[in-house]
Amino acid sequence: MEIIEEVSSYGALPLLSLNHVSILVKSVWTSVRFYEDVLGFFSIKRPSSFNFHGAWLFNYGIGIHLLENLSLDEYNTMNEPRPINPKDNHISFQCTDVELVKRRLDELGMKYVTAVVKEGGIEVDQVFFHDPDGYMIEICNCDNLPVLPISSSCCLKPKYDIGNCKKVEANKCGLMESVMLESLNKDMMNFSF
């Protein structure tokens, strides 16, 4: 498998995608249940050479690595749960149906906050809530909002199709601009007026 790419003049690293997010948790068992039952991740094998308790989960093309740290309470000076604040650090997941997400969270008795982002006639619905350790989770339909570079000298990389092992050849920004315009055109065709 060969990937042909041009590195920008800034010397950016040759990245393909986000692989995983590691999270310190008080209880691996409690957090595994949350990430499996609420967010739809599934447990995967982690290296047996690790000498600390944890779990690896995977779905949606991303891994969540849970690292147990029983002394988390020592670092947390707040004994009360943090407020759900959309402007706090968070992990965001794209969903197909925000209303279904809210109904499911209601069924689970979970507190959440909603927000709507409006831009040029496009609306993005967001739902924010905490995992068992107080980490913020966002569920949204963020792909309603097109990714438009600020600079005309962009060099965004398209998603790499691992299944077909296609070469991704970037000719400066021409390929990416074409991919983005094609994607935006398809998105615009899906709008109903």
UniProtKB/TrEMBL annotation:
Start and end residues of each VOC domain: 17-142
InterPro entries per UniProt: Glyas_Bleomycin-R_OHBP_Dase (IPR029068), Glyas_Fos-R_dOase_dom (IPR004360), Glyoxalase_1_CS (IPR018146), VOC_core (IPR037523)
Keywords, in A-Z order: Metal-binding, Transferase
Keyword Heme found: no
GO molecular function, one term: transferase activity
CDD domains linked to this entry: VOC_like
Pfam short name (any one): Glyoxalase
UniProt cross-references to PROSITE patterns, sorted A to Z: GLYOXALASE_I_1, VOC
Protein name per UniProt: Metallothiol transferase
